[in-house]
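Notes from the 1:1 (GR / supervisor)

We went over the backlog. Supervisor wanted to see one worked example end to end before approving the batch request, so GR pasted a single chain during the call. The sequence is below; no edits were made to it. Supervisor asked that the structure be written out right there so they could see what the output format looks like.
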Amino acid sequence: MIVEVLYPEFGNLFGDMANIRYLQACAPDMEFVYTDIRSTPRFVTDHVDMLYLGSMPERKQVIAMEQLKPHALRLKELIEQGTVVLATGNAMELFGEYISDSGQKTQMLGLFPFHADRKIQEIRHNSMFLGDFEGIQMVGCRSQFSFCRGDFTHPFIRVRGGCGNSPEDQTEGIHYKNLFATYLLGPLLVLNPLFTKYLLRLLGHDDTLAFEQQAMDAYQLRLSQLESPKANFHIG
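Structure output shown during the call:
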């Protein structure tokens, strides 16, 4: 079983590579391939079971897009075939049509009918998050200059607390076949052990987690705090 990590030198802005380290700890028999920005992705010519792309600085998004653009049709083909894809933080924006920044549009991969509105001159949005994915309560945090708007026919998470794709949206991210794209960032898999189990089963792997009891205890504590009537989701 092969997991390809795309552009790890870019996609670790908020410690998102902890997702891969945790997945490695949970499934040490998996093969992890790290593709740097100068290399042709393995998924272009060879089989992979999962692709991962993490949060990156805004100025690196264009570089990542330019490297992926020649392979957009192959990426779409893999998504349609059911390859597992996980994109965290602003990596989600690469799958949309464009990023709008001060009236300028930068084209993205165009795989889904949404776009990102960015306002870097304003204060970064920081918040905690609570939502529901197929009965799994998802917790996390977000830190971003942009919001996504468009057609989210295939949402990932229903918002229970915090912000969705945009302040007016009560859904968060994209879940299409086995693609999961979300603004939630950082160690998403560490924070959400039930979703990590779901992902491992999706990959056809045993769902026993590394440090499972500790992960579940931390998750239950965070969940209880976010479900409290006194919970404050806005940071700063």
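Supervisor's comment: The longest helix spans residues 212-227.
Batch request approved.
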